[in-house]
Design goal:
With 99 residues, this protein is mainly alpha-helical. Helices cover 70% and strands 0% of the residues.
């Protein structure tokens, strides 16, 4: 467990007073709420960086694959035909006619 320390900050007196009133109404110590806010911020920042790193790696992988001449390409027309056939089957199973 980490050693606790103090954190001092300057803020508007009115904001401080409003925060203390709301903390009291929530029956929570102000320090607990600030700690929760800080932990949520740290989590959000880390998650954002992790997602960004994952996304960049996926884009780089896709770019390498797009440049790789050994990767099998599927023509757009084939994809469209496959989708039309699957859509017709779904509509038929649903009791409708495809147009």
């Amino acid at each position: 467990m980490s050693k606790e320390t103090s954190f001092t900050l300057e803020l508007d007196a009115e904001l401080r007073e409003q925060f203390l009133i709301e903390a009291d109404a929530a029956k929570r110590p102000a320090s607990d709420l600030v700690r929760d806010f800080m932990q949520a911020f740290v989590r959000q920042q880390r998650d954002g960086r992790e997602h960004d790193a994952w996304f960049r790696a996926e884009v780089e992988k896709a770019l390498r694959e797009a440049d790789d001449l050994d990767v099998k390409r599927i023509p757009h027309e084939d994809i469209g035909e496959t989708w039309r056939r699957e859509r017709a089957e779904i509509l038929e199973r649903a009791g409708k006619r495809s147009t």
